[in-house]
Amino acid sequence: MSDLPTLPVTFRPGSTRVVLLTAAVAIFVVITAVAMLLKLSPGERASFIFTALLLDAVLLLLARPKVAVDEDGVTVVNLTNKRRLEWAEILQVTLRPGDPWVFLNLSDGTSLPALGIQPGLAKQRAIADARALRALVEARSAADPEGHRG
């Protein structure tokens, strides 16, 4: 299949990530500048900067999600967790209208959200990424049908 992405490939919500990282830098710069411009004690300035760092940590956490795909399987990195999946564990890739992100239906009967593909700011890109991941899963299933049904 020539329409399959070349492995390894990483899917991320690019536009959302740019917005979050830009906001993190802007928030840190603005809060630090305000802390320096106001007549504050060193402790108060430190608390302003500490607050900016906390806000940035949250924004960096929100920018973390990705879906990394290689020859051996898929790694799903969400906000606070990371899970490695073998190809045989993934039965289906779904992104229905209104879904906030892709869901992976797994062989153990559970569904894993994959926040690395989300239609938030770039809906068409998310749809294309979901289709690419689905095609990869289907290609691996066709190449090793026993692994997916076992």
Uncertain runs are none
Number of helices: 4
Which word captures the global form? Answer: elongated
Task: Output the helix-strand order.
Answer: EHHEEEEEEHH
Beta-strand content estimate: 15-25%
Overall pLDDT: 92
Oligomer: single chain
**CA gyration radius, whole angstroms:** 20 Å
Spatial sequence of strands, sheet with the most strands: 1-2-3-4
From the helix content, strand content and strand pairing, which structural class follows? alpha+beta
Number of strands: 7
Walk me through the structure:
The chain is built from 4 helices and 7 strands. The chain has helices at 14-37, 42-62, 123-143, 145-149; strands spanning 9-11, 66-70, 73-77, 82-86, 90-94, 102-106, 111-114. The strands form 2 sheets. A 4-stranded antiparallel sheet has the order 1-2-3-4, with no helix packed on it. Strands 5-6-7 form a 3-stranded antiparallel sheet. β3 (73-77) and β4 (82-86) form a beta hairpin. α1 runs antiparallel to α2.
Write the layout of secondary structure elements.
Elements (H helix, E strand, L loop, with lengths): L8 E3 L2 H24 L4 H21 L3 E5 L2 E5 L4 E5 L3 E5 L7 E5 L4 E4 L8 H21 L1 H5 L1
Antiparallel strand pairs: 1-2, 2-3, 3-4, 5-6, 6-7
Keywords:
alpha+beta; 150 residues; three-stranded antiparallel beta sheet; 4 helices
Summarize the structure.
The protein is α+β, with helices and mostly antiparallel strands and 150 residues long.
